[in-house]
């Protein structure tokens, strides 16, 4: 069995994937016939974080109806199942839905219905957008809290961490935690280890990206001691310019420091990747052995926010 076959056969979990970033060009043309697949491919091409955010804004504006969101979800689940994914937690950019003045309830009902029909268990993480500010984030936390018994397990936060720091969001995170939601904000993707500390002070249980932790040995020791995993996405970090090359990516150093790591796609269509490809990159670019890849895959179940993922 070669490494590609080995990775394909591994039962995997996907814990950090944005529904909005999963729309392949062919799906975009279905929901927005005025756009060509070539235009989508051109838009999905950038080498820095601001270029990525611009493309993200462009794509979310094309997702206009609950049926569009449902189609995106259906396609994502089909692709993940083909990769032997057995469990997923999917980020829904509720901050963006509010910004578009769309009906969060109708959209969530539509994607939730798709997730109940998926061939593996799916849970949802409602994401706020940092640059939309603390009041908006609290609203997202409230909307997530209303659905704790209805498939939502977490509260997250994406967007531009350089624009607004974590302490501003203390109320939203406190509210989310009190409502029984798990906390998984993005932090330390493009800025600093201090940004990860800021997320931890808010009670973060997993960190989206968090790769800047490598700059702070005390932080690495803390993450190891507290058993807090980093959700790492190699292709994403390369295409947003968060790292300059995959060879120099800190994944290996972070894992060797004993910090738990899970591998994810983040925005698979926008970063032209798949979960299997992320494992292949860990093997080829960072020298992860088959045993280490197996451990990474097991981490996906171990650090899931629901017991239903474990033992799958
Ligand atoms: N939203 C979707 N993908 C993101 C990323 N990589 N960083 C911040 N926010 C995001
Ligand atoms: Zn992300």
Task: Explain what the structure shows.
By secondary structure, the chain is α/β, with parallel strands linked by helices. The protein has a single domain, classed as Metal-dependent hydrolases (TIM Barrel), CATH 3.20.20.140. Helices cover 47% and strands 14% of the residues. The protein has helices at 3-9, 25-31, 37-43, 49-62, 66-82, 94-99, 104-116, 134-145, 170-178, 193-201, 217-226, 234-239, 251-256, 275-286, 290-302; strands spanning 12-18, 85-92, 122-129, 152-158, 182-183, 186-187, 207-209, 230-232, 261-263. A five-stranded parallel sheet has the order 1-2-3-4-5. Strands 6-7-8-9 form a four-stranded parallel sheet. Helix 1 crosses helix 14 (275-286) and helix 5 packs parallel to helix 7 (104-116). The radius of gyration is 18 Å and the shape is globular.
Rounded Rg: 18 Å
Instruction: Write out the distinct hetero groups bound to the structure.
Output: adenine, zinc ion
The poorly predicted ranges are: none
The largest sheet is: 5 strands, parallel
What is the general shape?
Answer: globular
If classified by CATH, what would the architecture be?
Alpha-Beta Barrel
Kindly provide the name of the CATH class.
Alpha Beta
Topology-level CATH name: TIM Barrel
Record the SSE blueprint:
Layout: H1 3-9, E1 12-18, H2 25-31, H3 37-43, H4 49-62, H5 66-82, E2 85-92, H6 94-99, H7 104-116, E3 122-129, H8 134-145, E4 152-158, H9 170-178, E5 182-183, E6 186-187, H10 193-201, E7 207-209, H11 217-226, E8 230-232, H12 234-239, H13 251-256, E9 261-263, H14 275-286, H15 290-302
Parallel strand pairs: 1-2, 2-3, 3-4, 4-5, 6-7, 7-8, 8-9
Helix pairs in contact: 1-14, 2-3, 5-7, 8-9
The structure holds adenine (ADE) and zinc ion.
